[in-house]
Amino acid sequence: MTEATGTVPLVEASGIVKRYGPTVALQDGRLTVRAGESHALVGRNGAGKSTLVSVLTGLQAPDAGTVRFDGEAPPPLADRDAWRAKVACVYQKPTVVPGLTVAENLFLGRQPTGRSGFISWRRLHAEAAQLLETWDVRVDPGAATADLKVEDRQMVEIARALSLGSRFIVLDEPTAQLDNREIERLFDRMRALQESGVTFLFISHHLQEVYEVCQTVTVLRDARWITTAPVAELPRTALIEAMAGEAVTAQGGAPRGRVADDAPVRLHVRGLTSQAYTSVDLDIRRGEVVGLAGSSASGKIELAETFAGLHTPHSGSAELDGTPLPFGDVPKALRAGVGCVPRDRHDQGLVSGMSIGDNATMSVLDRLGRFGLVPAAVKRDRAEELISRLDIRAEGPDQPVSDLSGGNAQKVVMARSLASDPRLLVLINPTAGVDVKSKESLLARMDTAREDGTAVLVVSDELDDLRRCDRVLVLFHGKVVASHPAGWHDHELIASIEGVQDAEGDESRG
Ligand SMILES: Nc1ncnc2c1ncn2[C@@H]1O[C@H](COP(=O)(O)OP(=O)(O)OP(=O)(O)O)[C@@H](O)[C@H]1O
Ligand SMILES: [Mg+2]
Q1: Owning domain of residue 413
Q2: pTM of the model
């Protein structure tokens, strides 16, 4: 295809079809990426984005369709090195080996050898340091990869890809686990790398990021290409419409009626202290939704996880309806009435070998049937109800969760935490990885949990999640530094998250 500009696209995929048994993951996948641009790939959960990436990176052969790099046919699938020299993908899950150092990961499988033929550790270290410096990645090459922060790990993966010759980098939801400041840093790096000729394909459910860092956007819907346009020509409502396939009403997001001041306290926390947080006092009433905000290092996740039985604090107490919560024991916390959407759905969330239905109803088995024997029909009904309530895109309750797209798997975790009718619901980044439309239904579920008297604690980096809360507590270096009742302005919350203390009486300011 020759155009007026006469430039051949860096990457061109057309007519891509990919099926998994009865599931059509891609029916008509198309993508044209021009050298030097940052190109966004968006679509609802299960639209086929990650599937297209797996075809573009040579991890899977499409059932039909073609991929071209610079107008040329791609290497054979088996030639991994040739693929790596063309394209790399940084996933949410690390692809670096945690047990190795940064330097070892950078040169995995191609370590510099000395004259003796053995690996030269000194050269390895020096070359790694040089590579990191070339790409301005400020990470110690001798550091253990397992200890890296997510943002540093991503940069190491990008540096590794660049050193293998790739100038096309796919980022599949890179911001889902980063706090605001880390996201800004990632974007700064992306812009700098773009300046030096690197091309990005960027996948995100945070549409404002698409506008911030990309020049072109491609929308997939129901396994098909819908449109490709300059971001400047596709305003947010049009973009959401293209993703959803229908006109979308303005997002409400307004908080429901506030919880009554005399509602009885469900969660009563005093002086809770651990390595990650200090002297936390916290009360959550029946039907109250409390948000917990802070940077990645603030201790907010550890605090929330403590109530779900994942940690044992050094001192202090937490009571649910007057009964001390069991610390450090997840099944006990569950039995005590705590439901949790954990941080890492892969490790803590789902049993990947099991079906959607089994996963969604797992924790409630003993509630649905006596002596743990659940009639299959009851389980099925319950699972089908959850699938439709949370708008999970799947073949049915019997499909294994390992087949699900990232966002749909997330909804199964949410379904499960709700299925147990908890008295305290702990949600950790509940909408991370979930598309804009499903986000609304997840948040609406939060509202109904509130109506039946559940106390809800939501940890989130997203202001839209927090806006729904009756109040938002901000943690900074493990201490509660602010409490914002519903109706706060973005800049106020962000200021306290960043540790910029507003002077007293500042709230009267314009
Ligand atoms: N290994 C697999 N086996 C069966 N079905 C699969 C498999 N991988 C993906 N699918 C299905 O293909 C469809 C597209 O999935 P894909 O992961 O590409 O979606 P996505 O656009 O990346 O969604 P998300 O935003 O949730 O990550 C989904 O319906 C998913 O369930
Ligand atoms: Mg995906």
Answers
A1: 265-351+407-497
A2: 0.81
Domain identity same for 109 and 158: yes
What's the CA angle centered on 389, arms 401 and 371, to 5 degrees? 65
The answer as to whether 395 is a domain residue is no
Q: Which residues fall within 8 angstroms of residue 90, CB to CB, at 6 or more apart?
A: 154, 157, 158, 161, 169, 170, 171, 172, 174
Q: Which residues of the chain have pLDDT under 50?
A: 1-4, 252-253, 365, 367-371, 503-510
Q: Please check whether residue 68 is in contact with residue 246, taking contact to mean a CB–CB distance below 8 angstroms.
A: no
- Domain with residue 127: its CATH number is 3.40.50.300
Q: How far apart are CA 159 and CA 84, in angstroms?
A: 12
3-state secondary structure of 212: helix
Check if the beta carbon of residue 87 is closer than 8 Å to that of residue 169: yes
Q: What one-character DSSP code corresponds to residue 363?
A: G
User: Hey, what are 302's tokens?
Assistant: 């550890």
Query: Which tens digits make up the pLDDT trace of 103-144?
Result: 887 777 666 666 666 667 778 888 888 888 888 888 898 888
112 CA from centroid of ligand 2 (Å):
35
- Distances, alpha carbon 33 to alpha carbons 68, 190, 217, 218, 399, in Å: 11, 16, 10, 10, 34
Kindly report the protein residue whose alpha carbon is nearest to atom 10 of ligand 1: 403
Q: Is the CB of 29 under 6 A from ligand 1?
A: no
CA 162 – CA 77 distance, rounded (Å): 20
pLDDT computed for residue 475 by the predictor = 95
Q: Which of 42, 175, 403 to mutate to test the pocket of ligand 1 (most atoms within 8 A of CB)?
A: 403
Give the per-residue pLDDT at 478. 94
Which of 55, 404, 413, 437 for mutating ligand 1's site (highest number of atoms within 8 Å of CB)? 404
Asked if 67 and 55 count as a contact pair (C-beta separation under 8 A), the reply is: yes
What separation in Å is there between the alpha carbon of 405 and the centre of ligand 2? 5
Task: Tell me how far apart the alpha carbons of residues 96 and 86 are, in angstroms, rounded to a whole number.
Answer: 19
Same domain, yes or no: 117 and 157: yes
- Residue 249 within a domain: no
Measured distance CA(339)–CA(51) in Å, rounded: 32
